[in-house]
Amino acid sequence: MRRPLFALLLAATLAPGAQAGAPERYLDLLDLHGTPTSATDRRFNLFFDAGAWHGYSLPARDEGTGFSGPFVHSLDGGRWAGRRFAAWTLESSAGKPIALAATESHAGPGYLERTHAGGGLSVRETLFFADAWHAVARIELSATASRDLHLQVEGEAMGGAPRADDGGIVQTLGRRSFLATRLFAGREVAAQAEGPRYRLEPAGLLHVEAGKPVALYVEQTLVVDNAREQPPLVDHADAWRRNRARWDGYLAFADSAHLPGVSDGDARRVAAKAVATLLANWRAARGDLGHDGVIPSYSNPDFNGFWAWDSWKHAAALARFAPDLARDQIRAMFDRQRPDGMVPDCVYLDTKDNNWRNTKPPLATWAVLAVHDATADRAFLTEMYGKLARYHRWWWTARDHDHDGLAEFGSTDGTRMAAAWESGMDNAVRFDGAKMLPNGPGAWSLDQASVDLNAYLYREAIDLARIAEVLGKVDDHAAWMKEAERIQTAVRTRMFDREHGYFFDIHLSDRSPVRVYGAEGWTPLWAGLADATQARAVSQVMLDPKKFATRMPFPTLAADDPHFSPVKGYWRGPVWLDQAYFGVEALRRHGYAQQADEMARRLVLNARGLTAQAPFYENYDPLTGNGYQSPNFSWSAAAYVLMLTPARKAP
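Given the sequence above, the corresponding structure tokens read:
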């Protein structure tokens, strides 16, 4: 394979370097050290950025030079294609090996960095992403006295033997996928490969003058599908400057974090880590994915696509600091919308893997409005309005079994499992006794109307009315407001249990409550449809330490329920941060600001390790604050962004 990209960039010259210069308080938000012991090793945190499908980590400080990687997320749900990238060795002009001691090893915002020094020499190696295709390791050499050096760059593959090709290294990963590694040193480079190891060696000696650092660049390019992709050329120095400018914007946003009762230092560090987590899970449009988006977690092999209600939550948070990505996250799901309005549960690189057995709760309009409120992008509202309206109407066509104006979760295949998935609360206790009812071809409902679904549909009608108003659609605005009023009346009068002071799902057969105290019961408060008396009663339940005001508050099932299982219960007791965030906002919306701040403070300070280096977990034990399930979980990070930072308002 001969690629013009390689030949054109051979003209790259040695250039003085610039240190990362990131605020020291945001170094090492997560521990990103680790070396894989197998192709599927996911025991440690990884560095991704810019939508790349390949990621890296820092080896142990005393573990040679270079970086661990790459981990290629587009392969088999994610596997390591390399054990080491951009390792370097030095020799004197006389051919004598030069050993330098490791001095620093850090994960900075948007880069990894290692330094080695000794005998008047120092080498700083910085890895960053120029874009979604190109990872770049910048090797900067400094000397206290002028000297000539011989340098070699080495790497080690895992799976798929590398081969030398046109002065670079190519590793075939699949029928259309490959990695290409290239050294840019301002001169010709010789490439050799033997077994899993390869070497890149610039011709001649490198001259390093005292006090005048020089830099070389090692570029690793991942092409997922060479039939569809043509990676652009990269100006490495300019790419680094753009990387820094982009991350300066992200960090300025993190600096806005504040929560009463939490030090600004802790609030900002958690917010910065949340930003870094969302961006580590950012994946560019590849394969059959039409737009960029954010996966739930690179740490879980099952999570290498985009999910619907994850996407809505990600977009609401991304709107505050990365609105372009927020737009694309929403578009990626609606790219697959059916003519009848349904949006799939999840979408993947290959459309054959998409899940059409169910969709997910309707929060898309909320997410679109979050983008608009942050950007005043009227064109985006115009683009999305018809799609959102079709999705909303689909619910009433496919998921209102008895046509009584209250919708049910359901599935396209008639299985209760897929219907529970549609709720997002897969094994929630409220569904234990539910059965399936046919609505028509490819449409089934549970035999209970769910209060959270109808609260979301109310909020969606209100938000669609707002969009219609912005777009000057007077009749649509009036129609949406009329529908919202209808849903509000139905939920208030039929789903609120006065005796128990809480909102519950109701059975279709006799309209009796499914009396399970779960997170769904405060969704009407979050949506703004509860009256003051109902809000007061529900808030008392939410603030009861025997039910939801636990050490880490707002578990998905009341702590005094006999089915409460805070560690292994999944949706039967652990705290899920999306529902906890909705709980905080439910209190705040109805005037309980002090209590909302207290619950948010507990969510920050009582999540074990959150203000230190612990990753965001999929869910948490409400009694201890221990994190469980998938680490580096995006919607948990998104919830903390929403809790800790002010909503971005367009000028």
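The longest strand covers residues 82-92. Try to locate this feature in the token string yourself.
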